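PROTEIN FOLDING TASK:
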Amino acid sequence: MMQNTSAERRKRLTSLTQLLSAGYIEKKVLLRALNYDSLDAFERDLRQLRSEYGAKIAYDRKHKAYKLIECGTIFPGVM
């Protein structure tokens, strides 16, 4: 089921998607760049991108970094 996404959160999801489309980005860099106030909020946004919008996001454990493989349905043309 689609959540009601606030304009601020949607802007953050868009920014997160754009950053991830550039290649592997460390988690700590993403948290800082997007001003996340908690790790829970960051993980919630990743879950929403994956589950509701079909984004394919890879995680590299060694480097603690994420990368967007496929943007899904909500942000066509980001990649």
Observations:
- The longest strand covers residues 65-70.
- The mean pLDDT is 87.
- The two ends are 25 Å apart (CA to CA).
- The chain has three helices and three strands.
